[in-house]
Specification:
By secondary structure, the protein is α+β, with helices and mostly antiparallel strands. The protein folds into three domains: 42-247, Sandwich (Jelly Rolls); 345-454, no CATH class; 467-663, no CATH class. The radius of gyration is 37 Å and the shape is extended. The protein contains 19 helices and 18 strands.
């Protein structure tokens, strides 16, 4: 992402200036506009209305023909319906067929459809033609193009031909769709059979009133290039058009006028140059320029129409009030949050740091510091850390020397020759460094029977914390051990391997496309998350679906987690890479390879009995693959039974509890 530096801003200002200059030629040529309006109006004269000679609906709808050639439906409104129309025309060389759908007072909400909201859903439009003297030789008419002035055409979700949603219109307007034939047809008098097929999952979405017509024009779509709303404006005389109608019509004209083609291209190029700068902008909230206290009304029972008492912006009365010099705005709230009088902000923050490092906060319910939350196990420690976070008095900011409760309880950094300036107030890095260099954090996690009986959950902090890694880090450990983990920082989300079928959702056609290169092995926090189909391995390790804010995750221990690390495609790929790394870096002797594999996964050297168990397992697996070379080939892509055996051993090591546990 490019940074919005002064140089970039200067270039952007120049592009904006050029963009404004480009707009100057965009003045509407009145004469050309009038000609264009006349052309649009005259396009309708090239069409000949089809007067039905026979018509029938297969599911019982009543079809009635009017004098103007329109067909009005009435009576039953079945879930699915087919209108069958037969008509004759003398137009020669037909190039297009038009279907107009019209509003009518007798239809629900004025139509043009017959469902409760006046909508319709056309599944198919089928046409057959035959010479008037040979009605036994009907042939199907194929179309190469279709254009509608409103609605959706061939929408994939429901596979319809044409659908219109008119439910939000105050005034119902006519719509039309033009079908361009693959070739000219018709010589002399021609008989047409037209079938309008309606099928909808909601049912009863049939057309209410319609008219059919044909043309031999070179460009049949000219009549439908203007939207149905603008077509109604074109039909109005210029003197009676409103300013908004004139503006809308002029804007559309500028988008198609031949004389402005060069200006449109210049505008397109200028916009592209501006976009190519790559400077990302975002919307921000701006404080209202007023000294008036922000206020709003309570809404009775949550109804926005039912106003209650007028209330003014303020902080909770149970806590310290805003400072006398602070305005009740966003800046005043920010200063109040980090003021010394606020008892929550620093405590909640350092408690979350403690939870991340020790697996459990000093206040276990880190999401709730209220009356329903847990009481702190070490309230004095929580208070001290909070004050130290706000007003550092311990340790050096540059990390050259950090005093701890264990090695210098009474030392003063000001008199320590190794210490430099104190850390900044509210420094997250400094407070976390202080915690991780303390004796409490650095002690052993080994547990004795006496400690387990007295303090099974380690609330007294008599030993170092021991807990399973967070969901986003579990796969990272496997990638790091195998040497696959990418150290790349930032960038868009990635799509690592996952079990097939997770994204096969009936209401969406998006697919999980695997990332390539090093993006395939990025850290877990870069994985693309979709709330309706979360990344499955993370979900198994207690990550959330992101449907709601979760301040504290509860860790579980289930068999599904073991199955994930053994069989998930991403973990098994890491096991294959670890096996190759073992063969490459572990030397030629099996014991040395086993030690390397164990150390890469657990960060410690194996004990002699552990080495023996690893080698016994590896030899048993190698013997199996020597007898089943095809299995070795399918497992690693190589016929080497030794590589296949180390792959299986790597798979087991990456599944160890010690591999996935921070201790």
């Amino acid at each position: 992402m490019d940074v919005d530096t002064p140089n970039v801003r200067a270039v952007r200002a120049d592009k904006d200036h050029r963009l404004v200059i480009t707009w100057n030629p965009w003045t509407s040529n009145a004469a050309e506009g009038d000609v264009y309006s006349v052309t649009l109006t005259g396009a309708g004269n090239a069409w000949s209305t089809l007067v039905p000679s026979a018509m029938k609906a297969t599911a019982g709808t009543t079809l009635t023909q009017a004098a103007d050639g329109t067909v009005l439906t009435a009576g039953a409104n079945p879930a699915n319906e087919i209108y069958n129309i037969e008509a004759r025309t003398s137009v020669t060389g037909i190039t297009g067929i038009r279907l107009e759908v019209l509003p009518d007072r007798s239809l629900p909400r004025g139509g043009p459809g017959r469902d409760a909201y006046g909508n319709f859903f056309l599944k198919a439009f089928e046409v057959e033609a035959a010479p008037a003297g040979a009605t036994d030789r009907f042939e199907k008419v194929d179309f190469q193009e279709m254009l509608a002035d409103n609605g959706k055409i061939k929408e994939k979700k429901f596979t319809q031909l044409w659908s219109v949603d008119a439910s939000r219109e105050d005034q119902r307007l006519p719509r039309q769709i033009v079908f361009v034939t693959c070739g000219k047809f018709g010589s002399g008098e021609t008989v047409l059979r037209i079938h309008l097929r309606h099928e909808s999952e909601f049912g009863g979405q049939n057309i209410g009133r319609f008219r059919l017509s044909v043309t031999a024009a070179v460009d049949p779509t000219a009549i439908a290039t203007v939207s149905h709303k603008l077509r109604a404006v074109v039909a109005i005389s210029e003197n009676t058009r409103t300013e908004e109608q004139k503006k809308d019509l002029a804007e559309y004209y500028r988008s198609v006028a031949p004389s402005l083609r060069a200006a449109r291209q210049r505008l397109k190029d200028a916009r592209k140059e501006l976009d190519d700068l790559g400077v990302v902008s975002t919307l921000v909230m701006r404080e209202r320029a007023s000294f008036e206290r922000p206020s709003t009304y309570l809404r009775i029972r949550g109804s926005f129409l039912s106003k209650g008492d007028l209330v003014y912006a303020n902080v909770p009365a149970v806590l310290a009030p805003l400072g006398e010099s602070e305005l009740p705005n966003r800046l005043g709230l920010a200063r109040w949050l980090v003021s010394k009088e606020n008892p929550l902000t620093a405590r909640v923050t350092v408690n979350r740091f403690w939870e991340q490092l020790f697996g459990r906060g000093i206040v276990e319910t880190s999401e709730d510091f209220g009356t329903q939350g847990a009481r702190p196990t070490h309230p004095e420690l929580l208070d001290w850390l909070a004050v130290e976070f706000m007003e550092p008095s311990f340790g050096a900011h540059d990390g050259s020397v950090v005093q701890t409760a264990s090695n210098a309880p009474n030392a003063s950094p000001a008199h320590d020759l190794g210490a430099s300036a104190l850390p900044r107030a509210w420094s997250m890095k400094a407070i976390q460094r202080l915690i991780v260099t303390s004796a409490t954090y650095r002690q052993s996690s080994r547990i004795t029977p006496e400690l387990e009986e007295r303090d099974p959950y380690n609330r007294l902090l008599a030993r170092a914390p021991r807990f399973r890694l967070d969901a986003e880090m579990v796969r990272d450990v496997a990638l790091a051990a195998s040497g696959l983990l990418s150290s790349k920082l930032g960038g868009p989300s990635v799509f690592p391997p996952q079990t097939e079928g997770i994204w096969d959702l009936p209401y969406n056609e998006e697919k999980w496309t695997l990332s390539g290169g090093e993006d395939r092995y990025r850290r877990g926090l870069y994985t693309f998350i979709r709330r309706t189909a979360p990344y499955p391995s993370m979900l198994n390790f207690d990550s959330t679906s992101r449907e709601m804010c979760t301040a504290r995750r509860v860790r579980t221990n289930t068999p599904l987690q073991a199955l994930t690390t053994l069989n998930d495609p991403a973990f098994f790929e890491a096991a294959q890479a670890l096996a190759r790394r073992i063969e490459k870096e572990g030397g030629t002797q099996a014991p040395a390879r086993a030690k390397l594999a164990f150390r890469l996964c657990t960060s410690r050297a194996p004990k002699p009995d552990e080495i023996d168990r690893l080698l016994s397992w590896e030899q048993r697996e190698q013997h199996f693959f020597e007898q089943h070379p095809n299995d070795a080939q399918s497992l690693t892509g190589s016929a080497s039974p030794e590589l296949a055996a180390w792959t299986m051993l790597s798979n087991v090591l990456l599944n160890l509890d010690e591999t996935l546990t921070r201790e």
